[in-house]
Amino acid sequence: MNQARTRFRQALAGGRPIVAPFVYDGLTAQLARAAGFEAVYMTGFGTAAARGYPDLGLLTMSEMVDNVRVIARASGLPVICDADTGYGNPINVWRTVQEYEDAGAAALHIEDQVWPKRCGFMAGKQVVPMATMIPKIRAACDARRDPDLVIIARTDALTPLGWPETERRARAYRAAGADLVFVDGIVTLEELRHYSEALGDLPLLYNGQLLPIQQAGDYRFKVIIHISTLFTAYVRLRDAYRELQRTGALAGAPGFEILPEITATLGANEVLDRAERYKE
Q1: Percentage of the chain lying above the pLDDT 90 cut
Q2: What does the angle CA 167 – CA 168 – CA 172 come to, to the nearest 5 degrees?
Q3: DSSP 245-275
Q4: Any idea where the domains of the chain sit in the sequence?
Q5: Which CATH number fits domain 3-236: 3.40.50.2300, 3.20.20.300, 3.20.20.60, 3.30.1390.20?
Q6: Are 199 and 157 within 8 A, CB to CB?
Q7: How many Cα atoms are found within 13 Å in the side-chain-facing hemisphere of 208?
Q8: How many of the other CB atoms lie within 10 Å of CB of 188?
């Protein structure tokens, strides 16, 4: 039994949304834990970007699972994971779910995009027929060995097909067994309100940063994954590299005095204490 997974399942039954910031490696996962978050979201966009690729379905299931394992170990928190389209048909989805489960995922979402997929906020998305997606959701639910593993069904139908089809799919995916429903690609407050009002009787996940967390909590979402940390990291690193190249220095940059904090965040103190116990 996975304790983080059990905590996540229990937290879903609570009255407030679970907020999970985007993370993509061990350091970002540990920073999120140190900040006090109760869960993290392993972003597929960020996982691909950390390997130098765009989010266009270029990573394999094995590469994604490797990152699940890193983030679960590094954070010790429940990890909500991007599992793309499940990497194939229902039989592939079965294996995907068990690989993610073995790697320590607390939850994972599969989506109804045509493969190769693309980031949910990119233009040109296409979705498979609903009848193709439903068996994959059923397979995902049947494949889990730990009943606490949360299966999330994501639909990307909003941009290509509009709200009526999106709502139809969301309800069908929930009926097929998904624990949570996730409509991706919400870009306006009007869409956010419609999402909450039209599907508010379902357990929903929201991906975005249109409102502060406290206000977004009023929309009755069970889970909020917050993308702003990924954007912020990109902009600040981009600007730092540009400034260093242009001026030869970074104004106000921390010096080596920050090193103890970094190593402590990474768990150096625990490792060194452990080493002391085994000295000859």
Answers
A1: 85
A2: 115
A3: HHHSS-TT---GGGHHHHHHHTTHHHHHHHH
A4: 3-236
A5: 3.20.20.60
A6: no
A7: 23
A8: 9
Maximum alpha-carbon separation in the chain: 70
227-254 confidence digits (pLDDT tens): 989 899 999 999 999 999 999 999 988 9
Q: Of 131, 179, 123, which is closest to residue 154 (Cα–Cα)?
A: 179
pLDDT value, residue 127? 97
- 280 has a pLDDT exceeding 90: no
- Our CA angle for 52, 54, 58, nearest 5°, is 90
Considering only CA atoms, which of 155, 56, 171, 48 is closest in space to residue 110? 155
pLDDT tens-place string over residues 53-72? 999 999 999 999 999 999 99
The pLDDT, as a whole number, for residue 81 is 98
